[in-house]
Structure formats: structure tokens, C-alpha cells
Design brief:
Length: 288
């Protein structure tokens, strides 16, 4: 989905200037400074750095419609499972998470961490009751980790129907133009801490909607990221209709009522706002 406003500066940081005057040869450098320098060189990589390096490996040969191996999916999911809000410099009392009821708008903030043509990493910050409307992820594998808070997630996958099928697909005879049949994958409330969810180009709930029950933050990894409409990976939004609304007399087992729905493409909602803000957590270091 597109982010309004100015995203964090994506340029590689310039080399820092050397602070202070050069010491004379007779003046010995402080042992305290030496210890700090040694500690920095040998320090353990931050959780964000480990995430970045794992993502680069997992999506090294990626592209639209290409899914990482099950082993790589598990490896990246394991890294994300062990990340919490403190690892990315977030707390629930930050301004991103304040209730916007007084202004009648609930803008969502996106903190850009990293992006290249293979993947993107960022955080969606949602105040209470904020909604990311139903949208898709064309050709993408997406990892989502709820860092804190409680959120309702509803997701769908398209129903691919052979023309000579029976049962539920009989209802396609009554399908109005512009509507497509989808099956519910997830319809639940998630509360942190919880496991990382993964969606794929053709399954896993490729189309989803997020509704914040409380203030919450979601760390997202997309491989590959969205692109221009010409490249076929722009974000599409949907209206959803109950299955019975256009089912005619199609056959549907009572136990499956509510499992299916009709989706209709629509423009980005006018009341949906995502603004960019600078990510201020641990920095990523790209190896040359």
C-alpha cells in the first residue's frame, strides 16, 4: 500500500567526520575509549540487523510469485518470533499510538526500515480502532509480526474453480460482473506476544484486513515489495459481500455458511491515511 508523506531518508549514511583534534604522539589515547571501541567492534548484531541479514539471504533469488523454501520460511519466521517492540525502539506511549477520536481521523504511521527490489521491511503503527482495509499482496510472500497490542485480522484467498465442478461453484452462474469468489482463511483476534503470520502469493490469506482493538504495531517483511501498476504489483483494495448476497440457488453446506464471500475491487478508501515517519530504532548496516 502507498504511504503518504515523506518516508525516512533512504540514503546510505555518510561517513562520520572525525571529532576533535588529533592527539600528539606523546599523548596516549584513553584506555576507556579503547575499551569502548573494542566492545563496539566485537558487539553482537542487533535483532534488526539479524533480521535484515536473514531477509537478504531468504529473498536473494526472489521475485514476483517466487516463494522461499520451507526451510527459509521457518528460518525467517523464527527470527521475527524473537523480535519485540524494544528491539525496534518502540513503546506504546509514542505519539503514533494515540487515540485520534478527537480529530475524527485515525492516521496510521509507517516506519520505513529498508527497501530494495527484492524486499521491504517496515512497521505499521496503529492507534486504537484504526483499520487497514482489505487489500492484496500480488505475487508476494509476506511475514507479519504483531509487536504489541491486540488486533483483529480477517483474510481471504481466491477460490479457483474448474468449469465442470459441482457444489458451491454452481453459484458462479449467478456471479455479477466484477465480483470474485474468495474463501476466508483467518477471522480472529490476535494479541501479542504471538507467532509470526505468513501469507503467500496464492494462499495463506493473501488478501487481509487489520483492525486495531488496542494500539498496536506490526512489523512487516514483504518479498518482493509493492511496485508501480505497470509492474503488476500495485495494491488493490476490495469491498466484501456475504456469500448469500449473490449466491442465487447455488449449493452450500450449512456448516460452510460464512466461509465464503464475494470480493469486488475498489479504489483506495478516502478515509484511509498512512503517513511516513522516520524510523529511530537500531540502524541497519549494509555490508559492502
Amino acid at each position: 500500500m502507498r504511504v503518504q508523506g515523506e518516508l525516512a531518508d533512504r540514503r546510505k549514511p555518510e561517513l562520520s567526520a572525525v571529532a576533535g583534534e588529533l592527539t600528539s604522539e606523546k599523548r596516549r589515547p584513553s584506555s576507556k575509549k579503547n575499551k569502548r571501541k573494542q566492545k563496539k567492534v566485537g558487539s553482537t548484531p542487533s535483532a534488526v540487523q539479524r533480521l535484515f541479514e536473514t531477509c537478504k539471504e531468504v529473498f536473494a533469488d526472489g521475485g514476483a510469485g517466487l516463494v522461499p523454501s520451507p526451510e527459509d520460511v521457518d528460518r525467517l519466521r523464527s527470527v521475527l518470533d524473537n523480535i519485540d517492540a524494544s528491539d525496534v525502539g518502540l513503546t506504546q506511549n509514542m505519539s503514533y499510538f494515540r487515540d485520534g477520536a478527537s480529530t475524527r481521523t485515525l492516521p496510521i504511521t509507517y516506519l520505513h526500515i529498508y527497501e530494495c527490489d527484492k524486499l521491504s521491511i517496515g512497521i505499521f503503527c496503529l492507534p486504537p480502532s484504526a483499520v487497514i482495509p482489505l487489500h492484496n499482496h500480488p505475487g508476494m510472500t509476506v511475514f507479519s509480526k504483531l509487536l504489541f497490542g491486540s488486533m483483529h485480522i480477517k483474510s481471504y484467498d481466491w477460490v479457483n474453480v474448474p468449469q465442470n465442478s459441482n457444489g458451491i461453484v454452481n453459484s458462479l452462474h449467478f456471479q455479477p460482473p466484477g465480483l470474485h469468489l474468495a474463501k476466508v482463511k483467518t477471522d480472529s483476534v490476535f494479541t501479542a506476544p504471538c507467532k509470526t503470520s505468513v501469507l503467500y502469493p496464492e494462499d495463506g490469506g493473501n488478501m487481509h484486513c487489520f483492525t486495531a482493538r488496542t494500539s498496536c504495531a506490526v512489523l512487516d517483511v514483504l518479498g518482493p515489495p509493492y511496485s508501480n501498476p505497470e509492474d503488476g504489483r500495485d495494491c488493490t483494495y476490495y469491498n466484501e459481500f456475504h456469500y448469500k448476497s449473490f449466491s442465487g440457488d447455488g449449493n452450500l453446506a450449512p456448516a460452510e455458511d460464512g466461509v465464503y464471500a464475494w470480493l469486488e475491487e475498489k479504489k483506495k478508501p478516502d478515509d484511509f491515511f498512512v503517513v511516513g515517519a522516520k524510523y529511530r530504532g537500531p540502524k541497519i548496516i549494509e555490508q559492502s
